[in-house]
Design goal:
alpha+beta; D-Maltodextrin-Binding Protein, domain 2; Dipeptide-binding Protein, domain 3; 30% helix; 17% strand
């Protein structure tokens, strides 16, 4: 085994190389980069964001959606975070400028060289910068205990963290803390999940692997060395959490309407289903935050515009500036490309978006979704080319056949279900259905986001599967509830919830990131509220490969284990991968970014970075 210092350096370089491959695998996107701008930022004005339904959570613990992340980046901070890429990095170095966490609230990123990583790679020590304050009256310093409070809130009984497995598998004692809190609130009559009871439990129990030697120092002890640990801490899940939140039930309207900010903006108005307004945070200091800015006076998100065509028209007219939760209108992409508008660019990205996930516990149609042959019939029968067209064609979407999309650790190009180059194999679909006991076809409940772009994809999917006898009963939902309902595993073993879901996934980080796809989506058992293992998939061999990959001492060894897990998942037909999307982005002519003639896209947010935008002519 190589030494820890060399291991970290080696994996970091490999991660950057892997990330550089993302741009290469997205060659259909423009290679010249978005139109550059040398103009200096202007202070003032209002940034207007348009949404179909907007964020599904304001509370950072359960929030796990790009629409959430876009706003959270303005009112929350973490120990480490990603720099938003400059225009030149798109054309010259792919994503290298945006895949490695840098210091945010921490004074520096821990390494073995600076003494921040010790104990054979199992202990990480962070120091918080002085001058970082909450927007309380009067302003109060953010402390190490505020970060501990966030981790303790992960397992609250009302709305727990969106993805606990990253952290419970890495931080010593966190899984035990989870078990204790779960057991304590198991009987709601004995221990009702009130704000007071939740806060009391969390304030009287500790996590052995998290220590706070003083108010500006936090120390994490891991179960084993994990070279991707800093990436976990860059997620919004790992934000600081103010003590005021002890007064509210997590994820409640009361908390949402009384948020405390340590970022450049604070929420001044939250009207569910209608609008969210953010204004500058007077307690925030630019000197403490190298990653964000407060160029605009306020940010206004308007909800309820479900048509992607209308959203685009509004941006073209200058009445809206950027999008929050809806893919760009696919039908307009060819004309936008031919127009060479400086406000339009297809940014390289790597996603599994969308994919079909099977609810393995659904009792519908005699438990059809739980039968391998039925799932394999869907694998064969789906016309992926039609879905690709629905999202705008090859420039935007690349057809994929594996759980790991191109450009990520463990990816290999293979297809277990030959399907006429993505156009669908109706004969094999019908054959497998007949073998499964459905010679006359079957009907399945299909849940999907109801915005116009995802509805367009559903229509293509529905039509292609109907050709081999699989009839989809559409169950459209707003994006603000879709992922929450699909992830409500305790309820989803009941009839008429969903048999197939039109899910979407963006890796939580890039580079050294096998954990963010295979572990996040497929490690079992994980049938809990807010799970992203939507089908409750559980395969002991896959679970073993996950452990093997996470303990690997080289990126190549980890990649081999991640790939084998991918193959096993596809043999089980747990999901149907469809396309990996780039990010077609349009913004109003008013919007500029540093070095950009258009809005700045942040791959790790999955949306424009609203803290690095300014309004021309303000």
């Amino acid at each position: 085994m190589i030494s820890m210092s060399k291991r970290i350096a080696g994996l970091t370089m490999a991660a950057v190389a892997a990330a550089g491959g993302l741009a290469a695998c997205s060659s259909s996107a423009s290679s010249s980069g978005p139109a550059a701008s040398s103009a200096k930022p202007v202070m003032g004005g209002t940034l207007r964001i348009v949404a179909a339904s907007g964020p599904d959570h304001i509370d950072t613990v359960p929030a796990y959606y790009t629409a959430d992340y876009q706003l959270e980046h303005a009112y929350t901070r973490q120990l480490v975070q990603y720099p938003t890429q400059a225009a030149t990095s798109i054309s010259s170095s792919g994503w290298n400028a945006d895949v490695t966490p840098v210091a945010d609230m921490a004074t520096e990123v821990p390494t073995t060289a600076n003494g921040g990583i010790t104990n054979g790679g199992k202990t990480y020590t962070f120091h918080i910068k002085p001058g970082v304050d909450w927007n309380t009256t009067p302003p109060r310093p953010v402390t190490s205990q505020d970060f501990v409070r966030e981790f303790k809130a992960f397992f609250n009984p009302v709305s727990p963290v969106g993805n606990p497995v990253y952290y419970t598998s890495a931080i010593a004692g966190l899984a035990n803390y989870d078990s204790q809190e779960t057991a304590y609130f198991a009987n709601a009559k004995t221990h009702p999940p009130t704000a007071a009871n939740i806060a009391n439990f969390q304030n009287t129990h500790s996590i052995s692997g998290i220590a706070t030697p003083n108010s500006s120092t936090i120390q994490f002890t891991l179960t084993s060395a994990a070279t991707d640990f800093v990436y976990m801490l860059a997620m919004p899940f790992a934000s600081a959490r103010p003590v005021e939140y002890d007064s509210y039930v997590p994820n409640s309207l009361q908390l949402d309407q009384h948020t405390i900010s340590d970022g450049p903006y604070q929420i001044s108005s939250y009207i569910p289903g209608k609008s969210i307004t953010l204004v500058r945070n007077p307690a925030w200091k630019q000197s403490t935050d190298p990653l964000r800015h407060d160029y605009v006076n306020q940010i206004v998100l308007t909800e309820g515009v479900t048509s992607a065509e209308t959203q685009l028209s509004d941006m073209q007219a200058g009445t809206q500036d950027v999008i929050n939760d809806t893919p760009l209108n696919a039908a307009s992409i060819p004309s936008l490309e031919s127009s060479h508008s400086p406000n339009f660019f297809v940014f390289p990205w790597s996603t599994t978006q969308p994919y079909l996930v099977f609810n393995l516990r659904s009792p519908d149609a005699n438990g059809a979704a739980g039968k391998l042959l039925v799932r394999q019939a869907v694998e064969y029968g789906l016309d992926k080319v039609a879905v690709q067209k629905a999202y705008g064609g090859p420039t935007v979407a690349t057809i994929i056949n594996s759980a790991i999309p191109p450009g990520n650790v463990g990816y290999q190009n293979y297809n277990l279900y030959p399907d006429n180059n993505g156009a669908g194999n109706v004969a094999m679909c019908k054959s497998d259905l007949s073998k499964a006991g459905y010679p006359n076809g079957l009907s399945l409940v299909y849940m999907y986001p109801n915005d116009s772009s995802n509805t367009r994809a559903f229509t293509a999917i529905q039509a292609s599967l109907a050709a081999c006898g699989i009839h989809l009963q559409g169950k459209p939902e707003p994006g603000s509830t879709f992922f929450t309902d699909m992830g409500n595993a305790p309820e989803n073993n009941k009839p008429n919830q969903f048999d197939i879901g039109q899910a979407a996934w963006v890796p939580d980080w890039f580079g050294n990131n096998g954990r963010t796809i295979i572990q996040a989506l497929f490690q079992g058992p994980n049938c809990v509220v807010n799970t992203v293992n939507y089908g409750c998939y559980d395969n002991s061999q896959v679970n073993s490969l996950i452990t093997q990959a996470e303990s690997a001492t080289s990126l190549s060894a980890a990649g081999a284990a991640w790939h084998q897990a991918d193959v096993d998942i596809m043999k089980d037909a747990a999901i149907v991968p469809i396309v990996s999307q780039n990010f077609p982005q349009y913004s109003s002519a008013r919007v500029k970014g540093i070095g950009y003639q258009t809005a700045m896209f942040a791959p790790n947010i999955g949306a424009p970075d609203i803290t690095n935008l300014w309004i021309s002519g303000s």
